Amino acid sequence: MASPEPSGVDGASASQEAVVEPIRMPTPEEIKGQDIWNNCAVRSVVSGVMGGGLGMLMGLFFGALENPITAEEMTARQQIVYQAKQMGRRSISNAKTFAVMGLIFSAAECVIEKARAKHDTTNSAVAGCVTGGALAVKGGPKATCVGCVGFATFSSSIMAMSRDASSASGA
């Protein structure tokens, strides 16, 4: 039977042991916040809004990189106006695409997660398939299948990388 006494000669190991903190129960406000966040509609809308914001920023960046074909013939003012219009068009387009992508992916993943009662890579893969297929449905059945497989692969790989990163950091 092990003794509660420190095993070290001078008792130094007992002073270096980590102190165990008591478990803190969540407050009613924290529980209510978790309940709100666990609602699939709330999660989907927030993901859509955040996706739209990311799309807008990416549109601004990539719109600024586009050069007009006739740049040599344009004055500086014409080039600035052209660039501003391009940035605006790309921002709106990317914001719509990323908002829809975030909304569909988040809604699908949330519904699948609640139905399966698990949080794993399969949920991300199926949600990615639904999202990729939905975004590519206008291109026909072949495009829908390619979108499904491509987005499912991307989602699974991102989930696997985040899982590996969290396990490597000790979380």
Automatic annotation (TrEMBL):
Pfam families to which the protein is assigned, alphabetical: Tim17
InterPro entries, per the entry: TIM22 (IPR039175)
Source species taxonomy: Eukaryota, Viridiplantae, Streptophyta, Embryophyta, Tracheophyta
Protein name according to UniProt: Mitochondrial import inner membrane translocase subunit TIM22
UniProt family annotation: Belongs to the Tim17/Tim22/Tim23 family.
Chain intervals for the UniProt region annotation (Disordered): 1-20
Stored PANTHER family: MITOCHONDRIAL IMPORT INNER MEMBRANE TRANSLOCASE SUBUNIT TIM22 (PTHR14110:SF0)
A single GO molecular function term of this UniProt record: protein transmembrane transporter activity
Keyword annotations: Membrane, Mitochondrion, Mitochondrion inner membrane, Transmembrane, Transmembrane helix
Gene Ontology CC terms, in alphabetical order: TIM22 mitochondrial import inner membrane insertion complex
Superkingdom to which the source organism belongs: Eukaryota
Subcellular location: Mitochondrion inner membrane
GO biological process terms on file: protein insertion into mitochondrial inner membrane
Topology in membrane: Multi-pass membrane protein
